[in-house]
């Protein structure tokens, strides 16, 4: 039913995964910009090169990395025109020298995770020692284009399915797997409620999202918090929303139970443990492995059901061994079905809300999930993170990471 590719040089078993070795691929910095609501939010007028330039600049200031020691950069992004050119330009303008190469990767909603994967694999192979993985998208300025194929390709039923809007796939999952509107709204409310609680904690104690957001300044405007999270969401307000795709399936997808459309950028700095210790870098996490799978395009949203167990099997873990799961909430239809089929307790999944509340800038999400998950593990002094997402056209991906940062409680 699906094809799968796996990371190489994968440790097996909890002891091997938690062990510390000189050639481990570690993460020394993991931050993101605030997220802006598409078309209406704080980042709506800023193209991806400006977002990257701002985050590169702040990262170099914060980390004190000598940019000449960066071996490579990989940027995950989906729809901006000429993504390699603008990414290269943004890096150069931020003070990264011309000797540092850059590449881009587009696997739609997993693009950010693929950038981390690409850099990690390059380090594992010995070709790279220090790299930066980026996930970025401006859905305000670069919305999803309508895919076009030739007549011969379009005749194939599954080829035609993979070209359809993602909202259509949400309705196909809801209809085929009998995910009711009430259940979708139930899971959406969890996301909205958790994100609002996280914002409340942020406002009172400078915690939660402040741990993962690196404030940026663009054109004199300094942005420090997300503007995507909607206060006051209730079961009643969700139930009162009209379907956004009334002509498809059961017409159960709404603006309240689907991921928000947004803008933002996130990055991780990766190197070997040996190099991090040599350079005096703080180690915040460890890359373990990833999986990529394919499913029927019509039901693309169910792919975490296959990506997560495959990766657990490859690394020799049980689902109970994972402390925090960040599973992308593309739509509540697919998210609810995945959660219930996987049998993972909701208290372990998206503890501060997911894309339904926070938003889903396509290229950013795979990187943001790692930034968010590592920050949560640090707060809880827990060890293992699993990220996963469905991918447009019928794919899915997952990644496992180890937390190596400890939360220090201030002494009174």
Report on this model:
The structure is a single chain. 36% of the residues lie in helices and 19% in strands. The protein has 412 residues and is of the alpha+beta class. The protein has a domain at 4-141 and 261-399: Peroxisomal Thiolase, Chain A, domain 1. The strands form two sheets. Strands 1, 2, 3, 4, 5, 6, 9, 10, 11, 12 and 13 form an eleven-stranded mixed sheet that branches. The longest helix has 25 residues, at 181-205. The N and C termini lie far apart (57 Å). Residues 25-273 form the Thiolase N-terminal domain.
What is the fold's blueprint, element by element?
Blueprint: E1 4-6, H1 14-18, E2 25-32, E3 36-37, H2 48-63, E4 72-76, H3 83-93, E5 102-105, H4 111-125, E6 130-138, H5 151-154, H6 157-161, H7 166-176, H8 181-205, E7 216-218, E8 221-223, H9 235-239, E9 262-272, H10 273-279, E10 285-294, H11 304-315, E11 324-327, H12 332-342, H13 355-358, H14 362-380, E12 384-391, E13 395-403
Parallel strand pairs: 4-5, 4-6, 11-12
Antiparallel strand pairs: 1-10, 2-9, 2-10, 3-9, 6-9, 7-8, 10-13, 12-13
Helix pairs in contact: 2-3, 4-14, 7-12, 8-12, 11-12
């Amino acid at each position: 039913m699906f094809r799968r590719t796996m990371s190489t040089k994968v440790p097996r078993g909890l002891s091997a995964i938690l062990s510390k070795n000189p050639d481990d691929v570690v993460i020394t910095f993991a931050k993101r910009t605030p997220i802006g609501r598409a078309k209406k939010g704080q980042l709506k007028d800023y193209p991806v090169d400006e977002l990257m330039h701002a985050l590169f600049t702040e990262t170099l200031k914060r980390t004190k990395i000598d940019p000449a020691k960066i071996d490579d950069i990989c940027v995950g992004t989906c729809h901006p025109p000429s993504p390699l050119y603008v990414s290269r330009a943004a890096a150069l303008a931020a003070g990264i020298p011309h000797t540092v190469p850059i590449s881009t990767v587009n696997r739609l909603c997993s693009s950010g995770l693929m950038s981390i994967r690409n850099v990690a694999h390059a380090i594992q192979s010995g070709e790279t020692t220090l790299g930066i993985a980026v996930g970025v998208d401006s859905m305000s300025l670069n919305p999803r284009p309508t895919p076009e194929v030739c007549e011969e390709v379009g005749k194939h039923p599954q080829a035609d399915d993979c070209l359809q809007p993602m909202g259509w796939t949400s309705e196909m999952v809801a209809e085929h797997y009998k995910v009711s509107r009430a259940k979708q709204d139930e899971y959406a409310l969890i996301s909205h409620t958790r994100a609002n609680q996280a914002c409340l904690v942020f406002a009172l104690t400078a915690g939660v999202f402040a741990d993962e957001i690196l404030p940026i300044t663009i054109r004199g405007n300094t942005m420090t918090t997300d503007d995507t999270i909607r206060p006051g969401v209730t079961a009643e307000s969700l139930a009162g929303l009209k379907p956004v795709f009334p002509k498809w399936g059961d017409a159960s997808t709404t603006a309240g139970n689907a991921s928000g459309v947004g803008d933002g950028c996130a990055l991780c700095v990766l190197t070997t443990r040996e190099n991090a210790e040599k350079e005096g870098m703080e180690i915040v996490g460890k890359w373990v492995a990833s999986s990529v799978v394919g499913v029927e395009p019509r039901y693309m949203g169910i792919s975490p059901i296959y990506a997560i167990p495959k990766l657990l099997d490859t690394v020799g873990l049980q689902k109970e061994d994972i402390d925090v799961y960040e599973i992308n909430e593309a739509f509540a239809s697919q998210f609810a079905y995945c959660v219930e089929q996987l049998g993972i307790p909701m208290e372990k999944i998206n503890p501060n809300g997911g894309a339904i509340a926070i938003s889903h800038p396509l290229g950013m999400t795979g990187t943001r999930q790692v930034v968010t998950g590592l920050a949560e593990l640090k707060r809880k002094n827990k060890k293992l993170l699993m990220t996963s997402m469905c991918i447009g056209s019928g794919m899915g991906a997952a990644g496992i990471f180890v937390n190596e940062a400890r939360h220090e409680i201030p002494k009174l």
